[in-house]
Amino acid sequence: MFKTRADKIFWFTLAAVFLVGLGFTEVLANEYYYTAVYAILQATMMAVAWNILGGFTGYVNFGSAGFFAIGAYTAVALDKWLGLPLPLLIVGSAIICGLMGLGVGYLTLRLKGVYFAIATLALAIVLETLITNWDFVGAARGVYILTPEKVPFFDSYIQLLFVVMLALTLGSIAVSRQLNDSRIGRGLAAIRDDEVAAECAGVPTLRLKLISTTIMGAMMGVAGAPYPFFVTFVDPLSAFNLFVAVNAIAMPLIGGTAHWIGPVIGALLIGGAQEAITVTISSELNVLVVGIMLVLFITLAPQGIVGLVQKWMKRRRG
Amino acid sequence: MSAPILQVRGVSKHFGGFTALDDIELELGASERLGLIGPNGSGKTTLINCISGSLTNDSGSIVFKGEDITRLAPHQRAARGVARSFQIPKPFRSMTVLENLRIPLEYAARRRTERARIDDDAMDVLELIGLKDRANDPSAGLTQVDMRKLELARALAAKPKLLVSDEAMAGLSSSEVDEILKILLALNARGVAVIMIEHIMRAVMGFAQRLVVLDAGRKIADGTPEDIIRSPDVERAYLGE
Amino acid sequence: MDLFANAIVAGILLGAFYAAVAIGLAITFGQLDIVNIAHPTFVVAGSYITWILNSSYGLDPVLAGILVAPIFFVVGVLIYRVYYAAFERTGQESLSGLAFFFGVMFIIEVVLIMVYGVDYRLVSADYIGKNIDVGFIGLPLRLVVPFVVASAMTAAVYFYLSRTFTGRAILAVAQDRLALQLMGADPVRIKQFAFGLAIATTAIAGSLLVMIGPVEPSLGRVYIGRAFAIVVLGGMGSIPGMVIAALLLGVVESLVSSFAGPSWAPAVAFGVLLFTLAVRPSGLFGRA
Fold first, then answer.
1. Single pTM value for the model
2. Which of B106, B111, B152, B154 to mutate to test the interface with A (most CBs of A within 10 A)?
3. What residue segments make up the domains of chain B, in order of their start?
4. Could you tell me how far CA A140 lies from the centroid of its own chain?
5. Angle at CA C191, nearest 5°, toward C185 and C193?
6. Hey, how many other C-beta atoms are within 10 angstroms of the C-beta on C178?
7. How far is A297 from chain C (nearest CA, A)?
8. ipTM for the complex shown
9. Which is more confidently placed, A88 or C128?
10. Fold of the domain built from segment(s) B31-54+72-239
């Protein structure tokens, strides 16, 4: 992990970003910034997670909202039932959503790519209906979450959540990069490029696909776990909202799906633009912007920003 | 002949009401060169799909190196030394030529390869195939004949004991056909058994030590090329009554 | 017993409407293998245009739908041309094509929200709000009229596809491009026409939708499950199969809604879809 120069730069950057984020909590008191960056971090983590199955392995998942919401509701349920502290809630969500990813993968991965995508959408809606009818977590009415009065180390709970989310997001990026450069990552790329040929070349396609869905599921669940504490009120409509799902797809597609850094670029770009537009114009407009950018990039630059940069670099060299 | 490397025993395959393979019996010796021929639709590709594992035969068994592999997935058969190339090349398009070979080396040939030597082994294969200069080229932009070579190279990189080549020469020029033939012969010289499906008769006749002829899912002939040419059954199958 | 019979009848009426929604998808997805996930959103857009024509000019909803259909046809052709140029020609259909239509769906939905807001919209016509009573079964006209129009449209499209040259070419283009070209038909133009036809049906389906109940911009999402469930359950490439699947779904949904509560209704379609995909992906009557 620390072998090459690129590795060292990567870890150094990660540590630096974390320390800077930590440093801000000492200096900056305005809650708005933490809220805005939290949203961008959450979107980044979802995009990175989606890309593991979507970009690395080539299976489009339309049900990201489902994993995110179950992560959120698992945290709510465990909090209500056992009163566990946040770190354990996050672990709980990771386990539940990881298992969910495994289960979903096993049931649907034998389907061709298109059917798989539709099945994931179907799953998300079925889950939403189930949660809407489950009283313990508030059903359709929603549920209020109490956040602790006294916060260790930080001035406010939002700052704590921000730091937690920062750490989780940086961790997910590291996992994604590790996967991208590994033997398993190469196997996933082979599956994406030509699954039949990969299988005949010795790649255990089912096993790798299941690994991919499990990691994606767990990561999305972890992204969703702190969400109830961030918004303090959760209902199925907000947890399962389509916007989360579209962002999870649009950001990697715009940033570039083949490389681990694609979703990060996409998330920072789109997430930043969305915050700016919401503040200056309206929140519906930024939703429209995402849709239009998705369509434009898909038709004109399917390799995303990473692809454009690679082409530009090749032209410079040649 | 020493113990056969491949035994196909009573293999049948149906698709709905259609019988693609009907009770096929076949044996292949280690290092043998077998030609599999027959009119279009006779079941050749179905048979090799059953051998490689892409399809599971409905009845009968496939025994490789003494082990019954009938229930094994394709990747498990690849790990045991069964390799195939595809009629229409299926390169891993996002990867370079060299990276294409890393996959079978890291997966199918994992137990037969040292981690540190993967790139060296890949370059060895490329040298044998004649693609060494193209090692770092993207696989998506290759010429037709280079794609076919890459297809074979990938099968070779799996370090197989049996290679099934599915119409690797279709549509190639005469000199290109010779290039591919040379590769297959060199491979066979290293101890790899080869089943060749081909419609280009001069290639099959020159290459195969034995021919098996399929027609409408049944094996109608099995013998030396000279015997097969003279067989009235084979003539009937190709030319009709 | 009363409730049961009413639920079944309502289910059949609704099912016929579902068939009208799904027939466009049966063409694009079932025949052409184009995963137009935005299809139901076009239906909702059709509903809104019908609503505008109805509330501003007093135009009868069905008439409005028929008038708007040609415009939708043109829109469909244009969208297919973009899709073809970007994806089909380069052979990158699956991942990118899906994402493309996902983006289109999103754009349409958001534009509807921005222009019309998130409130529910209804249409008014003489026959809406009235019932026909047959014995103990009440038939609300707001369901009967769509039933009639939907059935007529579905039958018309089906006969068109099976009897006319262009129609049969559409059915053939998925299976044998080469034969089609040899017959002098350009596969791209055929597909373009088919896609336009499919979107044209959404205009009419949309006018029926807003008759059956109030619409709001995100209504399309529930119909994604219904439309795909119907096409997949019926079997790709089989229009009669699609109709049977639509009726089945309508009845099952209606029963679930009556006896378990309407909040479970969305799950029915998606549950059916998942089940079909897991157990028999070729559907009831589809080509394997």
1. 0.86
2. B106
3. 31-54+72-239
4. 25
5. 90
6. 8
7. 9
8. 0.89
9. A88
10. Rossmann fold (3.40.50)
